Amino acid sequence: MTTLTASRYNARTMAVLAVDIIGSSQASDDLLDPMKTEMESLLSQALDTVGLSWDAAAHVRETGDGSMLAYPDHQAGQVAETVFYLDHLLRSRNRYHRVPMRARVAAHLGPMAEHHRYHRTYITLTRLLNAAPFGEVVRHWCEIDPDGERFGAGLVISKSLWQAVIEPFNVALVPPARCTRIEVVTPDFTGEAWIHLPGLDAEDTLARSRPRSRPATRPAVVEPAQSEPPGFAEPARNGTRLSSGT
């Protein structure tokens, strides 16, 4: 019989990052592999720039059009700052390519067990990526910047990472004043998050991208025509009375 001890459940808090390619589902099949390879190369360069390394990442997972990586929690600020350099690399790349590439990025802080394959922290990460307000912001910039020269990558930050690192320590390349709060609501996850768009105004973009509801209008009230009762008499201008019954 196996003795169950607390050591079997030891977990470490990790700073996790998810990156996926915006609009990959609309790309032709012959472009998918090259796009994924190129995105991984650009992400690796961005990680190197902030002092991280793809090879040093833990719990590396490949998604259909992206990747998830984990680093020790003391590197959480660097994980978040990766989006700044990834955005720059993507915008520079888009100036010389016919088909632009952009990325959605999510960053989170949560526990991960060393040898487990199932990580709730990664599940939260994917819910953040799919947050409706974040998607609206991304679509807004894809529409007004079709060449991808102004918008290369957007970041959504979990509440735990925001409260533990971003807000109190004023991370230089993800300044709190340039972030805006959103509500994340999915069938199995509800919570707060913050979005950041390098070099762009996230709060203004969110306001512009949200569907505008039309003001409610009252239906016109049609007054029913009043019929005159039999024998009704109306005074005439000349002083005589006119009766509807005569």
From TrEMBL:
Residues 207-246 are annotated as: Disordered. This is Class 3 adenylate cyclase. It comes from Amycolatopsis sulphurea.
